[in-house]
Amino acid sequence: MRRHPRFAAAIALAVALAACGGPAPAPTADAGAQDTGGSRRGDFGPPQGEPVKAVLTSPPLVPPATGRDRPARVVVELDVVEKVMPISEGVEYTFWTFGGTVPGSFIRVRQGDTVEFHLRNMPDSKMPHNIDLHGVTGPGGGATSSFTAPGHETQFSFKALNAGLFVYHCATAPVGMHVANGMYGLILVEPPGGLPEVDREYYVMQGDFYTTGNYREKGLQPFDMEKAIEERPTYVLFNGAEGALTGDKALQANTDETVRLYVGNGGPNLVSSFHVIGEIFDKVWYEGGTRYQENVQTTLIPAGGAAMMEFHMEVPGSYVLVDHSLFRAFNKGALGILKAEGPENKAIYSGQEVDAVYIGDRAQPNMQAVASAAESASSGELTVEQQIAAGKELFLGTCSTCHQPTGAGMKGVFPPLAASDYIANDPASLPRVIVHGLQGPIKVNGTDYDSVMPPMAQLTDDEVANISTFVLNSWGNPGGRISKDEVARLRDAAPAGPAAGH
Ligand SMILES: [Cu+2]
Fold first, then answer.
1. Residue 95 to residues 211, 214, 478, Cα–Cα distance (Å)
2. Which domains does the chain have, with CATH numbers?
């Protein structure tokens, strides 16, 4: 049945009047501080026109603006899919997802829309799931109405009363575990007038992950409940995988464009200090709300919260997205790249492209060689060539900052690895130095060094074996091969530094 438009307008007016029942907000000098009315003011008439099917996008993409100037009935169809996906090179994890991705599909509606939500749980799922959308007004945010067993579908509706950027997540017990497995995403409720137009919009969401194995330990890694309870994540990631936003998957923009990021934090535990190295946020809609702050360096995104940020790109190059709790960025994976292309602008920035200091081994398109080495290792067919290729990729991020990408070192500061007589005299010193570090006076190719190399404790045994094998077979070194088992034995043995003979 279609209502007479006049009649609909009368209802809308009545609703609006009822919503404005209280005293009018005091006018202020600052227009930005005016009361928008929260859930009590908006385009709250009945849905108009034919129902609209929501366009859902996978990260890092964002659906187009609704472009509507009236409320509609919007149909959202979201599938819950449990699937194994890579969480890092050569590391797999069983994710539980909304729409097959982590984070889940991005949903975009307009304030005043009536959202008809269909949640379908795939027949091959092992678990029941549901959804709690923070943009829903009503107990549980939809959770109890959407409890869905494997192979079933549920449906509920809500009116989007508050504009803003909201997290949604699964709320099936144990809730923390469902969220830790990747069950979260974002829903944008546009204000009635829409958001200002920008050149690029991207969808990024942070999450913390808990695996029984260590960081980058290869193979299929199960969820670790104990680590999760103790809030000791193995990985902290943007978009569900290490490398989801680096190399050939980096976000793209051109200079002279304005970029808007929709950034959520699924948690389940950590709060994010979100920062883009080399950029300043012109605007941040902090906490995903209505107002923006300007000229911000780092914005806090709570677990179960979100923020929108905008910046104009002036200088080409790589901009690094990080959680500025830095060990998460460099040792747990919370790192992404936004690549801006365009002409240099030396008046604004004279310097060079961001280098390995910030991007490390993530500067490469991907670490295919590391992944295939891991695969061969698990099937017992690892060749020297594979070890060298994998070691080369790892060397770039781990060793090259000091010893240089060419292995030449830096005179008087970092000894050379290229044609090193130190290595030639004792090839096993290589993995030993990596695992235990090295300090005190040494002589390499006739030059004295007396410095400190910290132990590279973050590397797994197979990573140490592959880097060592790469160095042994590069730059005029004697060749040979170091195995993972050798590294394991070295790790347990006491360090034998230059002081050992005293
Ligand atoms: Cu779930």
1. 12, 18, 44
2. 52-193 (2.60.40.420), 203-344+355-363 (2.60.40.420), 368-492 (1.10.760.10)
